[in-house]
Amino acid sequence: MFETVRKNHRLRPAIVGLCLAAALTGITACADSTPSDSGKPKSPGQSSHQNSKAPAAVKPSASAASLRMVANGDHSLAFHVTPGRLPALVLDAGGGEDSSYWKKMAPDLAKRTGSMVVTYDRAGMGKSDEVPGAWKVENAVSDLKAGLTQLGITHDVILVSHSQAGEVATYFAKENPNWLAGAVLVDGSLPEFYTDEETARIEAANKAQVAALKDQPSTQQTRQLLATAEGYGPTHRAYHQISWPRSVPATAIVSEKTPFETPEDAQLWRNAQQEFVKGAPNRDLVTAAKSSHDIAGDRPDVIVTAVGKMLKAVG
Q1: Is the pTM value of this prediction over 0.90?
Q2: Which class does domain 38-191+244-314 fall in?
């Protein structure tokens, strides 16, 4: 199931957040860097600052993204900031991906919306420091909060979160609802999906895959995969009990193909997205037609449209 790391090709992660679930159906990629035209799947709340300017921490005269290294405890994280007005769009990639996942969409959104656009590398990815031990969503939330605090962006934030980043977004929203103007969850990993039965099936199906991964050479990628796999069951049983704050508007975009190949698991994924949207009147469901899990690669227009509608809704 696991692939070795090949030159100029990212490891297609079968066990990164959502990808661990996808392994049930034999999927070897969650967020794949292969272009979508190759035929292979790649891997509204009212704002109180309607016309805010960019925080002083970021120079509004710059036209291109600038790299800002921020510290959280004993490690540093890479944030890429394109100046603009608030609300700020914070783009968070899925499991196994870093900020480069948004390399085409980030400048396009900045140009179309005039908003500040922020992408970043979670710990152990891209230019951010590696942190030993199991991956914990609480640590990821702490990193994101530290970065936005140091950038001076502590209100009027719209999260655009793909796949595993949906978990980070959910915990962040629960802890910091007043920071957020809204969120666009791009085939996001949502609490509703992780019933006890589904989580148990995922754990059982991946024992052999985890063992195989341990036999591979230790690289940054394999270490991140194993860190995500460690404690997966308890982590997601706890996640199933978490709920998105009703005060924060959200749009859930679900891919037509979903991350799964079997009809049963694909329908469970769709049901979870629908259940999430039914949880509050300020949530919308959008289906990305003809898209794999890699909606940013296959149907970027769907994300751009959803972001535009969210910005209009929040003022």
Answers
A1: no
A2: alpha beta
